[in-house]
Design a protein that fits this description.
608 residues; alpha+beta; 8-stranded mixed β-sheet; two-stranded antiparallel sheet; 17 helices; 12 strands; 34% helix; 9% strand; extended
């Protein structure tokens, strides 16, 4: 039966025959006309593929690879009516492969660090998630004021001063602050600055919490303080050690080690320590003194904000005696002498407190101790004194503030700038704490109240010496009263521009804390910022404190008395002195000395 062939199959056979004929003709070019060549399909296919893979002298590409990429793209996308825009696919493939020598655009490869940073930035660019439903009126919700945290405006002023951070970082810091005030009970927030570390950096924001949050933190403040070890606990520990030693001695006697000997004698009593450490000053509660502000830090844009703990007086005192760079890891131990009580988290908080106390300034007259709102005819209140002669520790903006002219702000004496942070005393607090308070009672009244026994006890005890309270400069003290370090002035003042006087700003730089700046426009705008390593200027190379001398902690006695070792000559002399005496030889006809001594005694008795 003859198979039936339709028109489509006939057309396909003709196309294959034509293609085979073209390949055969290409292969027979250059051969002798009389020779009969038998076509070889495998050879012809290899020759055709080799021809299509011939590289171009201009671009280095070949038709075979180009057609392969075009067909792969078509099969991957599978568009409809591909024959209508096959040339468009070919052009796109060529454009993607073509890269001129003048192309300076980056490749599609993104480094892992930039990729992670982009993912963190995308989270900040998204709108904040809806807050939990609350019964409080949205208008009554107290959120921190963000109107004074326009980081791009701050960057504009800092660029005029010749300092600042990258624009992208400042923008995303503002977005991160906006997110922080919705998650923490913050009443006021301000960008404090940046501290550079060896591995990572610290971005720092300064906050004031809400009043109820301060009350909650101070309620649990006493629980966090570790109580000192009492004398009774020390005695209990000594008795426990004594019982353990007795038990060991009895076991040695029972098991044969002490059969031949007697019960081991008691150990000598341990000498009592006479040295008493000075009482440690308690830390100031949250919202007061050096803990008036709360600080949050993070290592970079997109990282979570971490709240730093409150500072203690001991941390402040030890931080003044050491000199160490930051690493960027809050859990890094601080290996220094004297030993710092904490890790880098606490050291960072102590340094921030020191920097803030020494570099937070403002133009003269911007703040006042009087009322915030004074009517006409009312006089400004004078600073009230607290208990103990301490001045007020709070101030408010002056509603009648008249900004001083630029020439006064640029005065080299810096008398038109004042401190706005409380001075930290050598004790490590802003308010002095009396370690040995003495009652203000007369001697006669004391004698009447105390009995005879109590009087004897009081007489036996040494009377505590009255300590002079530590004092420091009060708030809003002019910078002209700051002490200089040898020949280095504590502050430097300059103008941001010497050409455009109408728009110039005054820039004040701290020489004791390099990186601390404050600028002020000719209006009412001023800002403090710190961009540095968190270390204070030193006039000489840093030298750690020497070890203290050995203290006389125990009374002088044979148990602890030190004696000089004898020399060889001393030992030889001692040996000779303690040699046995030679016996005396008694000659004949002479009486021995003992007999003569006996006769003398008898004569004395007869005379009596």
């Amino acid at each position: 039966m003859t198979p039936v062939i339709n028109d489509k199959q006939t057309s396909s056979i003709r196309q294959n025959h034509t293609c085979f004929k073209m390949i055969t003709d290409y292969d027979l070019q250059g051969e002798d006309d009389g020779a009969v060549q038998i076509p070889n399909s495998e050879t012809e296919f290899i020759n055709a593929k080799t021809y299509l893979q011939m590289a171009s002298a201009n671009t280095g590409d070949n038709l075979y690879d180009h057609l392969t990429e075009v067909l792969n793209k078509i099969l991957a996308e599978r568009p409809e009516n591909v024959i209508d825009f096959f040339e468009e696919y070919s052009r796109k493939v060529k454009e993607r492969r073509f890269k001129p020598m003048t192309d300076h655009l980056e490749d599609m490869y993104v480094p892992p660090g930039r990729f992670d940073l982009a993912n963190k930035m995308l989270l900040l660019l998204k709108p904040l998630p809806p807050s939990e439903p609350s019964t409080v009126d949205p208008d009554d919700l107290e959120l921190a004021d963000m109107s004074k945290n326009n980081m791009l405006e701050l960057l504009y002023y800092l660029e005029h001063c010749g300092i600042g951070l990258p624009r992208t970082e400042m923008f995303f810091v503002m977005l991160s602050i906006r997110k922080l005030i919705h998650t923490e009970p913050i009443a006021h927030i301000r960008f404090w600055g940046k501290i550079f570390g060896t591995l990572k950096d610290y971005l720092v924001v300064e906050c004031e919490l809400k009043e109820e949050e301060y009350i909650k933190r101070n309620e649990s403040y006493q629980d966090q303080v570790e109580p000192p070890i009492s004398v009774e606990e020390n005695q209990a520990e000594d008795s426990r050690i004594r019982k353990a030693l007795d038990a060991i001695a009895k076991q040695q006697q029972l098991y044969g080690e002490g059969k031949t000997g007697k019960y081991p004698r008691d150990l000598p009593t341990a000498p009592k320590i006479q040295y008493e450490e000075a009482p440690e000053a308690p830390a100031e509660p949250s919202g007061v003194g050096i803990n008036k502000k709360v600080y949050y830090v993070c290592n970079g844009v997109g990282d979570p904000w971490i709240q730093l703990p409150d500072a203690t007086p001991k941390q402040i005192r030890v931080a003044r005696q050491i000199y160490k760079s930051f690493t960027g890891n809050l859990e890094e131990p601080i290996c220094t002498y004297p030993e710092f009580p904490g890790k880098e988290r606490e050291f960072l908080r102590a340094q921030i407190a020191r920097i803030s106390a020494g570099t937070q300034i403002c133009p003269l007259g911007y703040y006042t101790f009087g009322a915030a709102e004074m009517g006409e005819g009312e006089e400004e209140e004078e600073p009230e004194e607290a208990a103990g002669g301490e001045t007020k520790t709070s101030y408010k903006p002056n509603p009648k503030y008249d900004p001083p002219p630029l020439k006064d702000l640029l005065d080299g004496s810096v008398s038109f700038w004042v401190h706005t942070a409380a001075y930290i005393l050598p004790q490590g607090r802003t308010n002095w704490w009396n370690p040995s308070p003495m009652p203000d009672v007369n001697d006669e009244e004391m004698d009447e109240e105390l009995g005879e026994e109590e009087e004897q006890e009081e007489q036996e005890k040494p009377k505590a010496e009255r300590m002079e309270p530590e004092t420091g400069p009060p708030l809003l003290t002019p910078l002209s009263e700051d002490a200089s370090v040898e020949a280095v002035p504590p502050w430097s003042v300059r103008c941001s521009s010497g050409i455009i006087d109408n728009f110039a700003m005054a820039v004040v730089r701290s020489n004791l804390w390099p990186g601390a700046y404050c600028f002020s426009t000719q209006g009412k705008i001023f800002q403090n910022i710190y961009l540095g390593y968190g270390l204070k200027y030193m006039e000489h190379n840093f030298s750690p404190l020497p070890l203290p001398p050995v203290q006389q902690e125990y009374p002088i006695g044979p148990e602890i008395l030190e004696m000089t070792d004898p020399s060889g000559a001393d030992e030889e002399k001692w040996r000779i002195d303690h040699l046995p005496k030679p016996k005396e030889v008694v000659l004949a006809g002479e009486e021995a000395e003992p007999e003569e001594a006996g006769e003398e005694e008898e004569e004395e008795e007869d005379e009596d």
